[in-house]
Every structure is written in C-alpha cells, then in structure tokens.
Amino acid sequence: MSERIVRPRADQESGGHLLEVRDLFVEFRTRDGVAKVINGVSYHLDAGETLAVLGESGSGKSVTAQAIMGILDSPPGFITGGSIRYRGTDLLTLPEEERRKIRGKHIAMIFQDALSALNPVFPVGWQIGEMLRLREGLSRADARRRAIELMELVKIPAARQRVRDYPHQFSGGMRQRVMIAMALALNPAVLIADEPTTALDVTVQAQIMDLLGELRRELDMAMILITHDLGVVADVADRIAVMYAGRIVEHADVHALYEAPAHPYTRGLLESIPRLDHKGQQLRTIRGLPPNLMRIPSGCPFHPRCPYARQECVDVVPAVHRLGGDRTSACHFAEEVLDGRI
Fold this sequence. Notes:
Blueprint: H1 10-13, E1 19-30, E2 33-45, E3 50-54, H2 61-69, E4 77-86, E5 89-90, H3 96-102, E6 107-110, H4 114-117, H5 124-136, H6 140-153, H7 159-162, H8 172-184, E7 190-194, H9 202-219, E8 222-227, E9 239-244, E10 247-253, H10 254-259, H11 264-271, H12 311-315, E11 321-322, E12 328-329, H13 334-339
C-alpha cells in the first residue's frame, strides 16, 4: 500500500478554498440553437472533504466537472463566464500547457463508464502505468510495480497476476476499481467521481462507495461526487449541492438537507427514494420532465413541475436565499419549504 500523503491545507497556500467554482456559465452552440447548460454555478471544496453534486440527467453536473478538468469539447461547448480557482489560481486563465500539468497530477477524474474509458487492446496494468511513464518518467518496470501497488490499494484481488489482464476480463465493479487506480496514480489533491456506481448492482455500488470514502480519508484527498442518486451519498458526503437546469438550487450540510430540504426539487428527490417503511405504498415521483436547455422556462426553471408554484415563480427568477451558515436555496419560498409550511 502506498505511503500516506500529507498535504498542506488550502488556506495555508492561497488564503481560500482548495477548489472554488464561481459564477460559471457554459453554453453549447449547435445547429438547432444555443443550449444554456450551466447558468451561474458556484460551489467550493475544502481539503479533505466530500461535496456531492446531485440532480437529474441534463442538470449540468458532468459538464461542470468537464469544465473544471479542462476537457470540455469545444466546439460545441464554450465557457462564457466565471472562474475556476485551484489553490487561488484561476484555471481558465492558464495556457493549455500549464492546464495539462494540473490535470491528473492535482485534479483527477473517474469517468462513469469504465468499459468505454478503458482501452480494450491494452492490459490494465499498462494503462495505469502509462501516466506514470509519461508524467513521472518511471521506467516500464517501475511503472508496472506501481500499477500493482495501485491495484492492491483499490482492493483488486491477485493484482500481481491480473496486471496483465485486459478490461473485458474484469467485472463491472473491478473495471471501476481499475479506473479509480488510474485516477489515483499521480496522487491528486482533488478527485472528481462522475457517477462512479452507474450500471453496477446494489452490493457493488456499496463496495465502491465504501472504497472511495476509505481512500479519501487515507490519502487526505478532497472529492466531488457526481450522482443522481441521493441514496448513495448519505454516508459519504459532507455537503450536498443540488443542481437543476444548470443552476445550484440548494446547498447544505448533508444531515441538514436530509432532515429538512429547503427547495421543492430537493424534497421531490428525497421523496422519490424507495423506503422499506413505505412498503405497499405508491412511490412518489416528480411530475414532468427536465426543461429543454434551449428553452428554459421563465422565472424559476422548476415552476412547471413544482406543486407549490405561484405566479411569482413564473415571473421572477428566484435569488439565492441564505438560510444560515453555508446553507442556501434558490426558491422564492425557501423558508416556508424549510419550515414545512408548504
């Protein structure tokens, strides 16, 4: 197992958060029109903590992560405003060569489809070691030894023998562990996990989430966990940011959010989780579909689906209301929702 890495706190280096996304705007320019994918997203990440970013497909979770990593396809994607600061440096102002030095070494990402992300024609050990050879200058033998260590770190059985195996020879859960090993190869300070349990059965999902939590603590990493499933983050995340139509509609400590959501969308997500104590009852759902990002509704984007919508919700874009501490909600009636009055 690799030696534990001790990192300086972000405030010791930059006087602020380890990672801070501020007022980020991203649009996709297509033949059919312009899709406003990210609309003023702001969140931060401190050393050693986990931020879960939640929302339905199309809410902008993964696009925000791609913008942070600097891997947004352009065209059609364009960052039109905002900043992304890592240890005080705005990554959006860096030349590509400097940005490449940050990617992987300081901020790494686990992609949601391991089978597509891994190259089918190379052994997994070669793929893990490739980054070490190119970025750290390790020899093939040293890179292979380190690849075995990383595979053992993520608890792949018989790593010394399996280092020569190809992706198709691994199960879905083991392929995801290989992806985690690749992301950890350069000891990043920030790990972005994009839907790391997609297409895995419930038991394997729990194993992967437990592994990520253990590695975060052991390696002193900060982590952004992107998911649409509130059920997988309860025991892992410190804070939650809920996204809808390219905006953060609620941000709160994980326990506070589960106990009393302050936005109708968050309440709807929580109520749609199957519960053992509701056996035999009809599962609640959020009516309608997420909005077309080329034609985002006026006012609050969630109002066509919101059971509590009023005329103000149709006419006026809600401001972000501060509800004490670091908690926020982008709802006109946030306090009423939080208190259970509506």
